Amino acid sequence: MKVLVVGSGGREHAICWSILKSPKVSKVFCAPGNAGIDSIVNIVNIRLDDLDGLLDFALNEEIDLTIVGPEQPLAIGIVDLFRRNKLLIFGPNQHSSQLESSKEFSKIFMKKNDIPTANFESFSDFDLAREHIKRSEYPLVVKADGLAAGKGVRVCYNFEEANEFLIFIMQDKIFSTSGDKVVIEDFLEGEEASFFVFTDGKSILPLDSSQDHKRLLDGDLGPNTGGMGAYSPAPIVDQETRENIMVDVGDPVFAAFKRDRIDYTGVLYIGLMIKDKKSKVVEFNCRFGDPETQPLLFRLNSDAFDLFYMTAKEELSKYKLEWKKKSSVTVVMAAKGYPGKYETGIPIKNLSEFQDKNVEIFHAGTRKVNGDININGGRVLGVTAEGDTLKDAISSAYRSVDKLDSTNLVYRKDIGKKGLIKIA
Ligand code: AMP
Ligand code: GLY
Fold first, then answer.
1. How far is the CA of 282 from the centre of ligand 1 (A)?
2. Of 229, 319, 354, 398, which is most buried with the most CB atoms under 10 A?
3. Which residue's alpha carbon is at the smallest distance from atom 3 of ligand 2?
4. Report field, pTM of the whole predicted structure over 0.85
5. Ligand 2, atom nearest to 230 Cα
6. Cβ partners under 8 Å of residue 354, min gap 6
């Protein structure tokens, strides 16, 4: 089977790495990829938003399955286009992917189907939104409706903060048309974790949990980032919490898809706020998380290609999911200065020589130039390790992090610590 993976991050590196283990896979392409992906599969220089270019490539190469990593191609309709051309593709269509690409769509869906989430109101008029934040109690959460690369949400502790963010979104248009509407919702208390389910429209398969570390600095301090590390499973999602997630969220979402004829094929990322074993949905994403996918797929024992393929073929109910009895951890190494300004084009000196059979370094922002692997993006590497316990996995990941040239990289030293506290 020939597979095309769309994306260029650590998540796509992990997807390529995991499907390559399948005996059914003969060739993998990744567009546009990165230096790490280049070392294991064939990278193709086609941009994420060049849907016609991706389609031409898939038709010419007679690709058997396309797997979409990030949200942008889904939101602009890659799945609809590929299906119209009789190509098999993993991911939801444009309409369904509004569960991620429009916060308002997602909140209305949840309210209509009694899925637990924060109370909200949405506005397309600045003055009405401003009146609302004047009357509201704080903290309060202000969200740009559309995609904003993880930057469109602010938890506000007073009117001034909410007003400032509202001006940025609706008047300064810092997120362009993604800020045509805003969703303003109640603040939820608890601990965040994510839970992943697959569905092919006929059945739903719960995968497992993961916990991201969104802030830049140890102790959950500093600015928000795309994610500085993750581990899986997340001890906060114990058996009872997991059952509650499926009863309160997973099953009703699947029933609503069927009832409302929402054609959803792919993975649903359920972002949760958990308190006393009960969860409320913070957000839905229509794709795997990054970096959550790296530790999650690291633990998968069954055939990863089959998981994607059988979902796309609507044969998911036949898939036998199996996990390694391990914990795994990803420590993200980011460019100095991220999430603000950072320098690119600097080589990471000893990366090419690094080898450890129990550790994988999934690349994100890297580029090969004259044999060197250079920094080419904010999040650069995701050092991923496993262990019999979470503690072992953390030690193993940090042993490898310590061996790498980190002159121009920064990383958190406490990835997984929250999980250890839960177990203790
Ligand atoms: P979202 O893009 O909607 O997931 O929001 C980004 C981040 O903002 C989340 O991961 C949470 O940390 C925080 N957040 C969003 N909505 C809420 C809420 N209602 N209550 C508390 N925190 C929230
Ligand atoms: N790590 C958060 C996300 O992928 O949305």
1. 6
2. 229
3. 289
4. yes
5. 1
6. 361, 400, 403, 404
